[in-house]
Design a protein that fits this description.
Layout (H helix, E strand, L loop, with lengths): L2 H13 L7 H8 L11 H26 L11
Helix pairs in contact: 1-3
Length: 78
């Protein structure tokens, strides 16, 4: 992972971006921060955002499964 991507991930965490945020909501929140320029193109920024959103969604799903006693590959126990 390059330094620019690491800085952009830090910015997204700092802004509190989570799995429910839209791209537009994220942009409104981060565009004035100097770290916004850590990646050069909008495509790079959106790809990094997508990685964070996907990771957050997977983690949220894991937590939801854990809360009801399941793992993603298990079946409910009686």
């Amino acid at each position: 992972m390059e330094e620019g991507e690491k800085a952009f991930f830090h910015l997204l965490r700092k802004a509190g971006v989570d799995a429910n945020w839209t791209w537009d909501q994220t942009m409104r929140s981060i565009i004035t921060d100097p770290l916004y320029k850590a990646l050069n193109t909008l495509a790079e920024k959106k790809a990094a955002w997508q990685k964070v959103i996907t990771s957050n969604r997977a983690f949220s799903l894991f937590i939801a499964f854990s809360d009801v006693g399941l793992t993603p590959r298990s079946t409910p126990t009686a």
